[in-house]
Specification:
62 residues; alpha+beta; three-stranded antiparallel β-sheet; two-stranded antiparallel sheet; 1 helix; globular
Length: 62
């Protein structure tokens, strides 16, 4: 499922929750990593990103 977050340029960014491989907290917000060295940094705090991604995944515990 696709979720929408805000990148550091204040633009909406669509993220496929199923492709996320790693999430880390950085100075600018939260970095979301995908396969093949791709990543995006969003301004939302890590807890909010995790919650948003978990809601998007059908197998995530609620």
């Amino acid at each position: 499922m696709i979720v929408t977050l805000t990148d550091t340029d204040r633009l909406e960014t669509a993220v496929n929750a199923a492709q996320v491989t790693f999430i880390s907290s950085v100075t600018d917000g939260t970095r979301i990593r995908f396969g093949e060295g791709r990543s995006v940094t969003v301004i939302e705090p890590m807890a909010e990103v995790v919650e948003t991604l978990n809601r998007a995944l059908p197998w995530a515990e609620r």
